[in-house]
Design goal:
alpha+beta, Peptide Deformylase, five-stranded antiparallel sheet, two-stranded antiparallel ribbon, 3 helices, 28% helix
């Protein structure tokens, strides 16, 4: 089921997610909801807390491929960086220049408890790091350079006031 996205500054977005301790029907349903929710052209990833569930899981949708991972951990980041505009479903319609590692590798498990490794460059690297930040209670706005962040927060406040 496609779920609604929580909008910043919802408290669930600002708290670290708990690890999944037991993979049961509830977690399987969460994974299906994550896959359904990320399945749109404008979505590169959805973390569980973005749909209101404070567990360590996210789905991704990059280069026509869709998948998920449970209890992910970053195991490698390149020292080379990429710099470009980044947005977030929880900060709709706003994009700001964000620096990320050019390559990222993440390990976790699937619903059968089997090891999963995700890695990539470009958009995949950016998506992996972005979703990992969500699971740590961080929104990409916190990664912005100070002057850009000041402007970004002003735009976020203005948008919230207009709702």
């Amino acid at each position: 089921m496609r779920r609604d996205i929580r909008i910043y500054p919802d408290p669930v977005l600002r708290s670290p997610c708990d690890p999944v301790s037991t993979i049961d029907d509830r977690v399987s349903a969460l994974v299906q909801d994550l896959l359904d929710t990320v399945d749109a052209d404008d979505r590169a990833g959805v973390a569980a807390n973005q749909i209101g569930v404070s567990l360590q899981a996210f789905s991704w949708h990059v280069d026509g491929q869709i998948g998920y991972i449970i209890n992910p951990e970053i195991v490698e980041l390149s020292s080379e960086t990429q710099h470009g505009d980044e947005g977030c479903l929880s900060v709709p319609g706003l994009y700001f220049p964000t620096t990320r590692a050019a390559y990222a590798k993440v390990r976790g498990v699937d619903v059968d408890g089997q090891d999963v490794t995700l890695e990539g460059e470009g958009l995949m690297a950016r998506a992996l790091q972005h979703e990992m930040d969500h699971l740590q209670g961080m929104v990409f706005l916190q990664r912005l350079e100070p002057e850009v962040r000041k402007q970004a927060m002003r735009e976020v406040r203005e948008r919230l006031l207009s709702l």
